[in-house]
Write a structure and sequence with these properties.
By secondary structure, this protein is α+β, with helices and mostly antiparallel strands. The chain contains 14 helices and eight strands. Strands 1, 2, 3, 4, 5, 6, 7 and 8 form an eight-stranded mixed sheet that branches. The longest helix has 17 residues.
Length: 372
């Protein structure tokens, strides 16, 4: 009888009370991030946090989560390209127990969570261009054994990364300069290296009294380009095209081109194998003999869409700075620019200063008279 009465009481009790008690007793776990509490974001403080984690617990519980959190904070501390930091993170993984005992454990990815964490760490090294060394190989060998997936990833990295490191013919320092002017100079030198005779100069727009935008200009022009510019027809305007972007590692530099008219090709029906009437070579234009260009297009600056007469990068990429560039080119060995018109093909000016110098921004092309 008592049992039956207890059942009736339990059945008559509303179930909402149980759910409300469960919701009220729920507790949320707050994740503690030791990297946030560090006021100084340096390499020393980053390594200090890793040492604190290693000494806190001998079993190193939560080491995978800690490594992923540390990988996400690397850019904040500026250590994403430091090999020593990556080796310190791999040392966080416990040694010995994750080494497979047989081939079946090796092929079925013994301790998959830890192995995938190590592979992600190596991939982040690869994305940042950090080449591992033999010490890191020994650490991975002690952690996952010779048949581990991370060690196979390490061997593939050691095969390909040294091949691609020095493959580019354009040298860049290990750390790019923080100054925008130096970065622009590296970009212009890389673009203009197609002609070894190219001279890269750095000018200031303050040299032009009428300039409104006070900034720097990195300009590149060779002697053959000066000859090409001197033989441009005065009734056909030159064109400034841009902005274009060139990638210097993870940085982008904006540059502009000064294009002229393409020379018409002269048809020559003479036999090139006929040696009965040999002519004296005309020499190098601008250096030996006369300065007239040969009848055939023989320079790398003469492209299908136009003749590249000069290239530049400015500090503001505005129309006023480009106009100052044209005037500085005129002062430095290009007198034809005083009488030939120049067309800007910028879709919109980046700054308000350029609007005062040119026509309204709604026009796609603007014709600027001579620089005098």
């Amino acid at each position: 009888m008592a049992t039956k009465m207890l059942r009736n009481i339990l059945r008559s009790r509303p179930p909402n009370i149980i759910l409300q008690r469960w919701e009220s007793s729920e507790k949320k776990v707050t994740v503690y991030d030791p990297f946030v509490t560090k006021p100084q974001k340096t390499k020393e403080t980053y390594l200090e946090v890793i040492k604190m984690f290693e000494g806190r617990d001998t079993r190193r519980r939560g080491h995978v989560e800690f490594i992923y959190a540390a990988l996400g904070r690397m850019k904040e501390f500026g250590v994403q390209k430091d090999l020593e930091v990556y080796k310190a993170l791999v040392e966080v993984l416990p040694k010995g127990k994750m080494v497979p005992d047989n081939v079946f454990q090796a092929e079925f990815m013994h301790y998959p969570k830890q192995q995938q964490c190590a592979v992600d760490l190596l991939e982040q090294m690869e994305d940042n261009g950090v080449i591992p060394d033999s010490e890191l190989e020994q650490i991975l060998l002690n952690t996952f054994g010779r048949r581990g997936i991370p060690l196979r990833k390490f061997w593939r990295m050691m095969y390909w990364m040294p091949k691609f490191k020095n493959l580019s013919p354009w040298y860049l320092p290990d750390e790019l300069p923080n100054d925008v002017l130096d970065l622009a100079r590296l970009a212009i030198e890389r673009i203009s290296s197609v002609d070894p005779d190219t001279k890269v100069e750095i000018w200031q727009t303050e040299e032009i009294e009428a300039s409104l935008d006070k900034t720097w200009i990195v300009s590149a022009q060779s002697e053959s380009q000066k000859v090409l510019l001197s033989q441009q027809p005065e009734d056909d305007p030159l064109v400034i095209r841009g902005p274009y972007k060139v990638c210097i590692r993870d940085q982008f530099v904006t540059y502009f081109l000064l294009l002229g008219k393409i020379r018409p090709e002269i048809k020559d029906d003479t036999d090139p194998d006929d040696v009965s009437n040999l002519k004296k070579p005309s020499g190098i234009p601008g250096f030996i003999g006369h300065t007239t260009l040969p009848s055939k297009r023989c320079t790398v600056h003469e492209q299908d869409d136009g003749t590249i007469l000069s290239i530049c990068a400015t500090g503001t990429s505005s129309r006023d700075s480009l106009l100052s560039w044209v005037r500085l080119l005129e002062k430095n060995g290009n007198p034809l620019l005083s009488s030939i018109p120049v067309i800007f093909t910028l879709t919109a000016p980046p700054t308000d200063i350029a609007i005062q110098e040119t026509q309204p921004a709604t026009m796609n092309e603007e014709k600027v008279p001579g620089t005098n």
